[in-house]
Amino acid sequence: MPSGETVREAILNAAEVRARAAGYNGFSFRELAADVGIKSASVHYHFPTKADLALALMDRYRAKALDFLGEQHDAPAALERLIALFRLAAMQSEMCLCGALGASSQDLPPAVQSSAAQFSDALVNWLYAAPDAKAALPLPPETIVALLEGALLLSVTKQRADFFEAAIRPLSA
Amino acid sequence: MPSGETVREAILNAAEVRARAAGYNGFSFRELAADVGIKSASVHYHFPTKADLALALMDRYRAKALDFLGEQHDAPAALERLIALFRLAAMQSEMCLCGALGASSQDLPPAVQSSAAQFSDALVNWLYAAPDAKAALPLPPETIVALLEGALLLSVTKQRADFFEAAIRPLSA
DNA sequence: TTGCCTCTATCTATCAGTTGATAGGCTGGC
DNA sequence: GCCAGCCTATCAACTGATAGATAGAGGCAA
Predict the structure, then answer these.
(1) Which among A33, A77, A171, B172 would be 20 to 30 A from B74, CA to CA?
(2) Å: B5 CA to D12 C1'
(3) pTM
């Protein structure tokens, strides 16, 4: 791990990569331990249960996303910012963590599921925070977030970043 | 299982429910066997490997979907039909199989991944088959399919079928 | 300074349960 | 007699999780 990074952060980084690629059942304590260079028991020291880990992961992910989006809610610029967030993921063929976990939400620990649900709400509310949201956006906030999430999901499944661009084109018209 | 149903069909039915709820890593041979009332070795008799099973599952799922959609490609009616397909899933809080598998596509057997990718292509192409697709549809086919997939994903994650309706409203305007 | 104590973070070793998969046996219908 | 379709039994690998030992850093009293 890069110097200055705590072990806890390194675990979360490894978990984020694996969870976004393979979902909640797609990573194990042993894999994360190997990624970081420690033993699986040490991962349990930092995150007693897998649900604890996933919860911390979702919290950090939501905070990072909202930080990236910033406080500027002016409609045209805000939309571009939100698009940029998903585009970044599409270009790396990485799912949104919320989508990666939410797709198998029926066998997630309840706390993790509700945390994933909270993420999409946060994005929708962030869009609604624009003073003239309804009027200035090309589509309603719920539609925009659903479209971005779906475009990313299909683009990752097909491993074709250009599908993402094609699907979201109406957002820029 | 209902009479007249073959064991093979019963296995696929059980697998579809579980896969749509929990993804590729969210069901096991033993669970399916218990659902059907046989032993796990018998499941292997019908589907030697898990990849075989998932592949057969995706094939049947795509065939069922295209059958439901039918051959009527006239734009307004076709769109309503496609919406109905996803609405049915949303009302039952069931993911689309394509989305459920695709979300963790990075650790899917390659054949299964490409089969999932193929599904969304099939829907897009089905929409494009309308003689006046571009002109008569409110949004481009890629956008419509991505929106439906994303709206379903978030609606299932949040367990709120009304979110689905809110997100896809622009399709009916 | 020396000795001891405590806390943090890691380790080794192990647990019971589950996983996908295989080998080989039984049985009833054609 | 054959064989489709199911069974029992078993395998090695992996899972999340726990118990308990160890090493080192820092404080603190004699």
Answers:
(1) A171
(2) 35
(3) 0.95
Judged against a pLDDT cut of 80, whether residue B148 lies above it is answered with yes
CB atoms within 10 A of CB A129: 13
pLDDT in tens, B74-102: 878 999 999 999 999 999 999 999 999 99
Q: By C-alpha distance, which of A99, A101, A102 is closest to A26?
A: A101
B50 touches strand D (CB under 7 A): no
What is the Cα–Cα distance from A152 to A154, expressed in whole angstroms?
6
Q: Which residues of A touch B156 (CB under 8 A)?
A: 102-103, 105-106
Q: What's the burial of B52, exposed, middle or buried (CB within 10 Å: 0-12/13-18/19+)?
A: middle
Contact flag, residue A73 CB and nucleic strand D, below 7 A: no
**Using the beta-carbon criterion (under 8 Å), do A159 and B21 form an inter-chain contact?**
no
Q: Is the dihedral of CA B59, B65, B67, B71 positive or negative?
A: negative
B85-93 long-range contacts, CB within 8 A, separation 24+: B86/B148, B86/B149, B86/B151, B86/B152, B86/B164, B86/B168, B87/B164, B87/B165, B89/B20, B89/B152, B89/B156, B90/B151, B90/B152, B90/B155, B90/B156, B90/B161, B90/B164, B90/B165, B91/B161, B93/A106, B93/B155, B93/B156, B93/B159, B93/B161
Could A158 and B117 be called an inter-chain contact, meaning their C-beta atoms sit closer than 8 Å? yes
Residues in Cβ contact with A104 at an 8 Å cutoff, skipping those fewer than 6 apart: A23, A24, A25, B21, B22, B23, B25, B26, B100, B103, B104
List chain A residues with CB under 8 Å of B25: 22-23, 25-26, 104
Nucleotide lying nearest to B26, CA to C1' measure: C19
Q: How many CB atoms lie within 10 A of CB A100?
A: 28
Nearest nucleotide by C1' position to the B6 CA atom: D5
Evaluate if the CB of B38 falls below 7 Å from strand D.
yes
